Amino acid sequence: MSARFIFVLGGVLSGLGKGIVTSSVAKLLKSYGFKVSAVKIDPYINIDAGTMRPTEHGEVWVTEDGGEIDQDLGNYERFLNKNISKINNITTGQVYLSVIKRERRLEYDGRDVEVIPDVVNEIKDRILAAEEDNDFVLVEVGGTTGDIENLLFLHAAREIGRIKESAYILVTYIPFLKNVGELKTKPTQHAAARLREVGIFPDFIVTRSEVRIDGPRRWKISRSCFMDSENIIDDPDASSIYAVPLMFQEQKFGEKILKKFGLEVLKSDMAKWGELVKNLEESDRILKIGLVGKYVVTGDSQHEDVYISIGQAIQHAGAHLKVKPVIEQIQSTDLEKDPESLEKLRKYDAVIVPGGFGASGVEGKIAAVRFCRENKIPFLGLCYGFQMAVIEYARNVCKLVGAHSTEINPETEFPVIDIMPEQKELMKEKKYGATMRLGRYPAVLSEGSQVHRIYGQNEISERHRHRYEVNPNYIEKLEAAGLKFSGRSPNNRLMEFLELPGHPFFIATQAHPEFKSRFESPSPLFMSFVKAALERMPAQKKL
Questions:
Q1: More confident residue, 500 or 143
Q2: pTM of the full predicted structure?
Q3: Which of 42, 267, 311, 441 is 20 to 30 A away from residue 13, measured at CA?
Q4: Are both 119 and 210 inside the same structural domain?
Q5: CATH of the domain at 529
Q6: Is 512 a catalytic residue?
Q7: Given this model, what pLDDT does residue 297 score?
Q8: Which domain holds residue 28?
């Protein structure tokens, strides 16, 4: 039997949490035993999110098969506890590039190539490709109703509704005017009207607001949007994104969707999920994690979603260990301006130095690594943080003064981080994409090492997104000075993990293990990191 499609559309404004609604509905349907997948449509012209500034667009999510995707796909994986392919991300750039290439190959038989039907058909084909053996496919359309950018995607959604069993969910914003203490529904009414203009009548409306909507407002939306009031789903601000599926379950949202498709309502299993949410909400053990990043502040704003997957991976571990993690972001350039501010790192139970690119804030990161190493503070370095740990050790333990990455200082006397020779040849040919390690890569772990005990396997895999590597010419010197490269590529050429024996927890990886952490199955490395932080936590905080 072919898959059923559920389109999640946005109204009023962006940033409402369509991705969380999509993920939550997908999780509910999976809890009934159905096979579920999800697609994210991004109306921008870019081919993918790989070249976007994290301070503008947020984190770039990396899939197993090497896709650089909008961060919403990460939530789909975290909620569904499954890998999702890069083909499940569709952008306007991909669509038009494909149409133009097909025209150049004469696949349109020399006729005029037009927006309708050709571009819309390309969109439909890409959405339908996610069908595979799934029972349900959720399709989140980026942007809001009325945007010129997503108009063709709405046309495609409407046309798929003619050939496939489909449902449409409109996620809207209900503003709460505090001066009069009233919720206003007019923006939602207009959003639904704009959808009807393109031939889509929403089956459900999910109302985002600071507070729950009341009876009169529900009735008004029902009457003006031509739907039963029971199909208006309340979605007020929640304590955690993982509480949203439970909130939807209370309103029988999953059952209503199954009834819409004429399906039998089966028994839902959300017990484990509910227990984990309870652990996060009710724990009085507060764990303080410091994150030293370079994309923390731009202008007067602090960007919460640049390192969103790291935060979620820590939350996953916290839910399983019954502790409530609080993550504080520290701008690495601040540590450069005021070295004495490094002392503030002592107040944290553990510190993370995450990934990044470029020169800004590098010395602050290196200083943070050194402080954690010398003061026995649990430390986890990720990707760029792994490289900073190598540079710090080379400079301060191996006494290689000025050791650096050739990404930052091409003339350094001690290039402990460099591009591999075969990558340099590709760079000369301007094949920049081919020099990136993207997606899943295996690592062989040293028996008896800390990371081997953490993963419990000889060979594991994690996802990568980087170009530079540890220079093989310095590995022997670094290890002779006490640093241990405890994970390597199968051919032994690439360093994947390092650790420092004798330190409570000093581990770094060239990979991004946060991309494989799920709410119901946390990353082993993050679990071990949070356990180490708990050990550092003062005794009175553990009670």
A1: 500
A2: 0.93
A3: 311
A4: yes
A5: 3.40.50.880
A6: yes
A7: 64
A8: 4-275
